Amino acid sequence: MLKDKYRLQIPGPTPIPPRVQLAMSRPMIGHRDPDCSRLVREVSRRLGPVFGTQNPVLLLTGSGTSALEAAAANLLAEGEEAAVVVTGAFGDRFANILNSMRVKVHRLDVEWGKACHPEQLDAFLEQHPRVKAVFLTFCETSTGVLNPIRELVGRVRERTQALTVVDGVSCVGGVPAEADRWGIDILVAGSQKALMLPPGLAFAAVSDRAWNAMETNPHPRFYLDLSNYRKSLEKDTTPNTPAVSLLFGLKEVLDMLDEEGMETVFSRHRLMMEMTRAGIRALDLELLTEDRDASPTVTAVKGGKTWSSEDLRKELRRLGLRVAGGQQHLKGKIFRIGHMGYADPLDVLTTLSALEVALARIGAPVETGAGTQAAEEEWIRVSRADHRSVKQTGN
Ligand SMILES: *Cc1c(COP(=O)(O)O)cnc(C)c1O
């Protein structure tokens, strides 16, 4: 098959839109040049609505984890207490970051594949009244769970003085996020997931409460000292050389989001989730998550009894389609389909079609056409409903 033609349906990095790729190939500019300052000013402000904040969004050069570590290092110091809700591999990473700082970590471990429900968090918070911050994962990429962040953060704010830090790396830009209104103190995202950019930029939306807590935090930090990013941003710049080319791309991404409209972006992601789930069910495969816990950006599917999900992934790769495997104890047990960022319903159909062929080729039982048919029917059903609602509102 064509070696350079493949579909990247993994939950990050995700495909780059051609116009974003083109924007990133612009000739370099100096990072202290007025053109760069204008760019930094524009993108940090235009990211505000994507994160649901009035404040400009901080721009860090690093992968998503750099902003997670920054959140931890700026809010907490050795010996202080933090709670981490662990619903999968990325919650676990949050706990590891805090452990490395010798913060006293209280883990609320939730079965992988399930979301954390507000009542669980209530009981947990009651047991640990001294936590200074609660760390939550919005979309748990390792399982395809979307945690009910609005409710969870609401419970923390109602019952405690603790700060809330949310890892939104694999969903901000694809699902509604309201950092200010929901009371999130630090909302983190990365460039290479729903935001359609290459890896290399991380973002943080920071509340006034968090800034106050940072002022007195003695934990040592330099590259990740968020107050430096804030001071620099007041002068339309960054403390160090940013990933300038990615900033060119980011401006283009923000144009794309504006052109499509955020509501349409969100409903496109929901549609891709519904189509994927309908197709997987019609193929008699088992989804890892229940509907109510499912993320619009990534779907995890269990392997079969008579075939291995790793063999399936290898076969899909031969066909020109990349999906991700499982992490930690789910390695070899599930595969994960990313459907975020520069992805649309036709990508879902292609994925399901390739899945049917690959299942047949590895000798798994499959009714070819069943998955794509169910997904198409879901697409048609949703378009009819949209059409009706457009008629009713007269738009
Ligand atoms: C991808 C991802 C990260 C960041 O990973 P990096 O490799 O550091 O970019 C963090 N959290 C979640 C939930 C993710 O999906």
UniProtKB/TrEMBL annotation:
Protein name: Aspartate aminotransferase-like enzyme
Gene3D superfamilies membership: Aspartate Aminotransferase, domain 1, Type I PLP-dependent aspartate aminotransferase-like (Major domain)
Pfam families: Aminotran_5 (PF00266)
Keywords assigned by UniProt, alphabetized: Aminotransferase, Pyridoxal phosphate, Transferase
Biological classification of the source: Bacteria, Bacillati, Bacillota, Bacilli, Bacillales
Keyword Cytoplasm found: no
GO biological process, one term: glycine biosynthetic process, by transamination of glyoxylate
Membrane-spanning segments: none
InterPro entries (alphabetical): Aminotrans_V_dom (IPR000192), Aminotrans_V_PyrdxlP_BS (IPR020578), PyrdxlP-dep_Trfase (IPR015424), PyrdxlP-dep_Trfase_major (IPR015421), PyrdxlP-dep_Trfase_small (IPR015422), SP_NH2Trfase/AEP_transaminase (IPR024169)
